[in-house]
Amino acid sequence: MKARSLVMPALLLGFFFVLAASCAKYVPTEVGVAPGAPAPEAKALWSYITKDSPYTEWRMWPDKKALYMGTVPHGALLTTYVNGGARKAVIQSAGVMPNGAIIVKENYRPDKEMVAVTVMYKVAGYNPEANNWFWAKYSPKGDIMVAGCAPMCIACHSGRKQFDYIMTK
Ligand code: HEC
Fold first, then answer.
1. Which of 4, 35, 100, 144 could cross-link to 42 by cystine, CB 3.0-4.6 Å?
2. Backbone dihedral angles phi then psi of residue 30, each to the nearest 5 degrees
3. How far, in Å, is the centroid of ligand 1 from the Cα of 75?
4. How many percent of the chain have pLDDT more than 70?
């Protein structure tokens, strides 16, 4: 009887360990946020990419134009912007994005209505198990839909682990 009553708590504990291990908690002293760059937090990142350094003033992903064709699940049409570090890595075919790289992708329906903004932001030490990407999905107004080291985003993008979880070719 006694042993049995311990099974549930042990299972629960194990479950929480799995959760904790699959998604690092943001500890400011343990991550390498570059000076002037935002913390790996959804609000700070949105404020950075819309106010401090508006992504719409960045360059688009090299060789991609506005509203190129996308695939499931992101949207029929996509417009993808890269900050300086990310752009350099794409141009040099570096195969890995540098610390501070930010990719912002606008996702559109076929009728060109924007439905979401998805972001990947690389922060040294944030989530070493999955190449330190901070993932976020916002509504066009900036409501937070997904944020963190989101298992759902990672699960699909890890199909391109050898390309630093970057899907765009
Ligand atoms: C089912 C697979 C899948 C899931 C889940 C997914 N993505 Fe993607 N993602 C893609 C594909 C495929 C592309 C390439 C663009 C395209 O063809 O749509 C992409 C491209 C991107 C890009 C542009 C950079 C790159 O990797 O090419 C960003 C940013 C991005 N996704 C963010 C996210 C975020 C944030 C989430 C979770 C909220 C997420 N993705 C979930 C498949 C996925």
1. 144
2. -105, -5
3. 10
4. 82
